[in-house]
Amino acid sequence: MIYLDYFATTPCAPEVVDAMLPWFTQDFANPHSTHGPGQKAAHAVEVAREHVAALIGAEAREIVFTSGATEANNIAIKGAARHVQRMGGERRRVITSAVEHKCVLESVKSLESEGFEPVILPVDRHGRVDSASLEKALSVPTALVSIMAANNETGVLQDIPTLSALARQAGAVFHTDLAQMAGKLPVSLEHVDLASVSAHKMYGPKGVGALYVRRRPRARIVPLFSGGGQERGVRSGTLPTPLVVGFGEAARIARGALTVEPERLAQLRDVLWQKLRDGLPGSVLNGAKVPRLPGGLNFCLPKGVSALDVMAHLPDIAMSTGSACSAAELAPSYVLTAMGLPEAEASRCLRLSVGRFTSNAEIDRAAALLVDVARVS
């Protein structure tokens, strides 16, 4: 198997697995218990919190652990909007973009039943939000803006510093989904009030993530559910110490690799694209003219070649046509159609993503197989 779907998920790094194992068995105590074993687990949780915070340039007390980025996105969007509503005033608009992760789009749309006005901003042909369109949308009193830092299908980067500054000037809370960005490129939280992170996108375990909640000026959110008040009342529930420890270790490793790994991944990606472009004339790279994540490659195969057919003929290459959360859908990617691609063209697109364990030999082999299969399809 050649794994080229690192945007969907990553394998746990061996160091992460080693760090987690003791907390499943010998150090199994509840981190919220006051006895010795419990406090030992609590200390491990706080060390992990410091590592996650350091990765994104936050304070440890600004990190709230969740079950993943989907939960963090829900807490941020619904919680922030409901707090604004609870405080009164006229801010009822909630703004996002057409290329967000499904959980963001659905969270924003769900607020309509609570009296909010969802606004879905279009993107240009490169998949980016135009700052002028956001500024225009903000002319109506707005409660929240949620724009992802990096797209999970194309890898296209949004201009978060500019967009977040516009939201701040308009008095709106700004949230960004960092699930794809954190651990792959340095991030800036300037003007960002809320941000979501996922462990399994950075060689950590599945089932754990975090929400950054700005302390100064303080971002206010209403919790989604009631419980014992853990995580400063934002997210009640017993923390899974092994997963949190693994998340912290993954964040620590990712932070240390930020000076070298992005360049290596970009080189692998560029070699792969060069081989595919040379072998399959007529292939088109999506988001080619704007900044993208270093490890991602989303491209359209030549006319007459179906992406699904290519995937069916290459079961030993892990790749996708779009987001893993929508993989069961037969419709073309909504991200690509939002970028202006006709459905027929979007159905010819493949998403390939390389990662820490991708080798040069795998790049060569995958490119050769893809070219051979696509040529006869």
UniProtKB/TrEMBL annotation:
Could you tell me what reaction this enzyme catalyses? Answer: (sulfur carrier)-H + L-cysteine = (sulfur carrier)-SH + L-alanine
Q: Where is the Aminotransferase class V domain?
A: 2-365
Q: What is its EC number?
A: 2.8.1.7
Q: Which domain of life is it from?
A: Bacteria
PROSITE patterns, sorted = AA_TRANSFER_CLASS_5 (PS00595)
- Relate the protein's function as given in its record: Catalyzes the removal of elemental sulfur atoms from cysteine to produce alanine. Seems to participate in the biosynthesis of the nitrogenase metalloclusters by providing the inorganic sulfur required for the Fe-S core formation.
Q: What is this protein called?
A: Cysteine desulfurase
Say which species the protein is native to: Neokomagataea anthophila
